[in-house]
Amino acid sequence: MNYPETKLPPLRMFVGFLAVLLLCSTVGAAADRPNILIILADDLGYGDLSSYGGKDIRTPNVDGIGARGMRFENFYANCPVCSPTRASLLSGRYPAMAGVPGVIRTHATNNWGYLRQDARLLPGLLKKAGYHTAIVGKWHLGLMEENHPLSRGFDFFHGFLGDMMDDYYKHRRHNINYMRKGRETIDPGGHATDLFSDWAVDYILSRKEKKEPFCLYLAYNAPHTPIQPPKEWVEKITKRQPGISGKRAKLVALIEHMDHGIGKVLDALEKTGQAENTLVIFTSDNGGQVNVGANNGPLKAGKGTVYEGGIKVPALASWPGRIAPGSNCKRVSLTMDILPTLLEALSVTSDEPFDGVSFLSELRGKKRAEAKREIYFIRREGGTAYGGKTIEALRWGNWKLLQNSPFQPLELYNLEADPLEATNLAGKERGVFRDLSARLRRELQRYGTVPWQKP
Fold this sequence. Notes:
Blueprint: H1 10-32, E1 35-41, H2 60-68, E2 70-72, E3 75-76, H3 82-91, H4 122-126, E4 132-138, E5 156-160, E6 172-173, E7 176-177, E8 179-181, E9 184-185, H5 192-206, E10 214-219, H6 231-240, H7 246-271, E11 278-284, H8 308-311, E12 315-318, E13 327-329, E14 333-334, H9 338-345, H10 360-363, E15 374-380, H11 383-386, E16 390-396, E17 399-403, E18 411-414, H12 430-447
Parallel strand pairs: 1-10, 1-11, 2-13, 3-14, 4-5, 4-10
Antiparallel strand pairs: 2-12, 5-8, 6-7, 8-9, 11-12, 15-16, 16-17, 17-18
Helix pairs in contact: 5-7, 6-7
């Protein structure tokens, strides 16, 4: 092929060539350091997205994450309740190994966790790759200064320091205001879901011209109780779904209202030109609460239990150019796997003793052979139903051993043959039962090495 003779002087040609090389290297560096958006819903059931089979619900914005990327078929929260799963997300550890085997609460007499001080969390680890880190929304990992988000590595915090809100508009828990911007107590007006969505948008807009990539952890209170959606959203649901129960209509409205807010956040990424270089991960901290109308699909039970309905949750991820649109992942993954995945994607090394395992290969469409993995779930709780004891489960291949009450016998299920956990095989499969029981006891002994109360 004959190329036309250039009229550029040799020096100008050389400078132009260097400029192209510099541009390519900058683009490559940006692609290697995507922005990260982690969205965590609170108590969202496995069947409470339209992309997960919900027939009476419309969640186009969350569903769109999976349509543009990947839908996980076998994703599990690390615990059937709030705080422990959040600790696993930020630490890459089992909840008990992060010092949070149960719910962290405002009253010391009913508090079952203390985030260990020597754990290096997600924001601190991402700083090694030059990230600015932010959390907007619900924290729920401690009220004391040493466990404030800014004390645990985040650069920015705008949200709710406590656990659940007693009212989505008043933002109080036991009459105490836990709304913060940084360390400043604030008292904004409006529905908490709208506030968190708007604050996330504000943060994304603020990062538009910044050179350093960001990681935003957006943690909603919705659809946790109280089931308190804006009235106009309930009216929209009841008009669209004649015959829907009042209880279900309110929960659907609360979820769709959250989906609308997530849409605003995703739109902000598009409008600022950051969407093409942002890895988005969406999931829930545990299964849906059945007695308020949650839909966990065909799964057994719900929030608070170690049956499938309490721990199996929806999860979706998108990353333009890296995750194939419309793909799906059948591998069993957990909340604690997210942090190792992010670090591998960024080529960040760490000597932290993670329990989680990266699923980056699966995101990129590569199946990888892996050894059979022991997966544990634990919840410590008070009250007469638990008495400060634990419930737990172990999944080993297709087998699942569980004790859903500290006062009831262990149960054994084969999830491949019996995904709905209908037939207890504890009396029939004694060899498997003894093997898994021994494994579970060893894991509980390991958990005992980490204190879960403040010294």
